[in-house]
């Protein structure tokens, strides 16, 4: 079901506000009202409407012109329709020159109001769609999708840029969830091949026979179920990039066939004796130590040397914690927009926990966590209560265990209570749950240790 277009009505006369809201709601809009300019600006920041309908004269220090100026200064795309009495028409004409969409004179013709708001909303939606497409294009053809400001990520970005301009093979290594496919896409879409296909293949998800057919294609009758000729990923990616994910799980017999294709740039579909010439760049990825697998004879040494033209090690998130705030900001912005939720960020207490959490699932886990929190959020700022409960128990524990030896148990208990209270912004009910004690016990301990 499509999301309703939001309209904000700022009107200090309650009866008039109710009439305007009802007239617009009948057209299917989601209408929010505000009685004063200050309230209007606050609700504008929260609901981010497509159109603001505001009276020129409002009770309080913030009038309709001030509302207009604040809306125009914001990054949110929105049109403003002014309402005015006859004596202030010249002021509204100046507002049009300043950036207002239109004005309506009192007494208000509701049909005219609906027509003006409809045109204004359509203009806003067109601008939003154009911005979305532009951002999508910019994101795809630069490295903005790779988020981070740590020295490690900056070095990797420099390496990605250098690799992107050539046809050299690239091997991306790192734990599951670090974003290897995202890095592969960044290389492709910044390369001379960016207008050609980028095709990912999961080498771990297919059996030997299926993997050979998927990569190299097959002819009709090559095996049971082969009802027609079919191109493989190599042919489909001709001129572009083939991303071989989890290449460390590729069976040895397929490794030999892949090596031959890479060396000859010639693909022989299953069931054929003649080859098809192809021009494909290979980017591979693995969460395993391929050098060790080579020593164990579980990965071909010649293929290993062939695919690691440029070897990029992507560190886990716990080794680049300085990137966590930037990633959180990036994903909050992404999901607040896609899920149409008025979420702006995290409270300091929530951010402390998120930064200290070990993130075993890396960026993938962080992204999914933020999405869930944004969808379920009740406020603009995500707080400790919005975090998954297991984070309260795990965050920071690994860094603190080494400091416990030889410390008085009472001091340990006092410190644990103090830090937990800080973590939850003084919420004693939540602190008691995290500490695994009753609230009465917590109150007694706070008094006993003199904790403020």
Describe the structure.
- The protein has helices spanning 14-25, 37-47, 64-73, 89-98, 110-140, 151-164, 180-188, 208-216, 233-236, 252-264, 290-295, 301-307, 324-338, 348-356, 362-376, 389-394, 397-400, 409-423, 428-435, 439-449, and strands at 6-10, 30-34, 51-55, 79-84, 102-105, 170-173, 198-202, 217-218, 230-231, 241-245, 266-267, 276-277, 281-286, 310-313, 345-346, 381-382.
- With 452 residues, it is an alpha/beta fold.
- The strands form five sheets. A five-stranded parallel β-sheet has the order 2-1-3-4-5, with helices on both faces. A five-stranded parallel β-sheet has the order 7-10-13-6-14. A two-stranded antiparallel ribbon has the order 8-9.
- The longest helix is centred in the first third of the chain and has 31 residues, at 110-140.
Please describe the topology of this protein:
Layout: E1 6-10, H1 14-25, E2 30-34, H2 37-47, E3 51-55, H3 64-73, E4 79-84, H4 89-98, E5 102-105, H5 110-140, H6 151-164, E6 170-173, H7 180-188, E7 198-202, H8 208-216, E8 217-218, E9 230-231, H9 233-236, E10 241-245, H10 252-264, E11 266-267, E12 276-277, E13 281-286, H11 290-295, H12 301-307, E14 310-313, H13 324-338, E15 345-346, H14 348-356, H15 362-376, E16 381-382, H16 389-394, H17 397-400, H18 409-423, H19 428-435, H20 439-449
Parallel strand pairs: 1-2, 1-3, 3-4, 4-5, 6-13, 6-14, 7-10, 10-13, 15-16
Antiparallel strand pairs: 8-9, 11-12
Helix pairs in contact: 2-3, 6-7, 13-15, 18-19, 19-20
């Amino acid at each position: 079901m499509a999301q309703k277009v939001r309209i904000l009505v700022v009107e200090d006369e309650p009866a008039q506000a109710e009439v305007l809201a009802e007239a617009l709601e009948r057209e299917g809009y989601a209408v929010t009202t505000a009685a004063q300019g200050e309230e209007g600006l606050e609700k504008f920041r929260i609901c981010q409407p497509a159109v603001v309908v505001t009276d020129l004269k409002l009770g309080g220090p913030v009038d309709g012109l001030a509302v207009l100026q604040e809306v125009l200064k914001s990054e949110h795309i929105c049109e403003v329709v002014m309402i005015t009495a006859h004596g202030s028409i010249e002021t509204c004409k100046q507002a049009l020159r300043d950036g207002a969409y239109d004005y309506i004179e009192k007494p208000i013709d509701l049909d005219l109001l609906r027509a003006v708001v409809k045109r204004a909303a359509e203009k806003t939606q067109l601008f939003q769609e154009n911005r979305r497409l532009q951002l999508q294009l910019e994101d795809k053809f630069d490295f903005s999708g790779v988020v981070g400001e740590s020295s490690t990520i900056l070095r990797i970005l420099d390496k990605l840029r250098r690799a992107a301009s050539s046809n050299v093979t690239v091997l991306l290594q790192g734990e599951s969830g670090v974003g290897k496919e995202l890095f592969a896409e960044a290389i492709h879409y910044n390369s001379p091949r960016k207008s050609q296909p980028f095709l990912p293949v999961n080498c771990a998800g297919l059996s030997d026979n299926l993997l050979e057919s998927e990569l190299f294609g097959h002819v009709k009758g090559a095996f049971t179920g082969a009802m027609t000729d079919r191109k493989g990923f190599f042919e489909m990616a001709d001129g572009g990039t083939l991303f071989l994910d989890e290449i460390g799980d590729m069976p040895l017999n397929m490794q030999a066939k892949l090596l031959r294709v890479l060396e000859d740039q010639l693909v022989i579909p299953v069931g054929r004796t003649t080859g098809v010439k192809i021009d494909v760049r290979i980017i591979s990825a693995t969460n395993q130590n391929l050098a060790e697998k080579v020593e164990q004879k579980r990965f071909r040494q010649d293929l290993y040397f062939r695919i690691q033209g440029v070897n990029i090690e992507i560190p886990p998130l716990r080794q680049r914690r300085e990137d966590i705030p930037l990633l959180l900001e990036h994903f909050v912005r992404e999901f607040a927009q896609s899920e149409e939720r008025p979420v702006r960020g995290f409270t300091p207490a929530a951010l402390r926990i998120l930064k200290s959490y070990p993130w075993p699932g890396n960026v993938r886990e962080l992204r999914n966590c933020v999405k869930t929190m944004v969808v379920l959020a009740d406020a603009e700022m995500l707080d400790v209560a919005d975090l998954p409960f297991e984070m309260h128990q795990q965050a920071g524990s690994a860094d603190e265990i080494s400091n416990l030896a030889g410390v008085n148990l009472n001091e340990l208990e006092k410190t644990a209570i103090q830090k937990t209270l800080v973590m939850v912004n003084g919420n004693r009910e939540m602190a008691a749950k995290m500490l695994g004690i009753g609230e009465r016990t917590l109150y007694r301990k706070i008094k006993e240790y003199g904790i403020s």
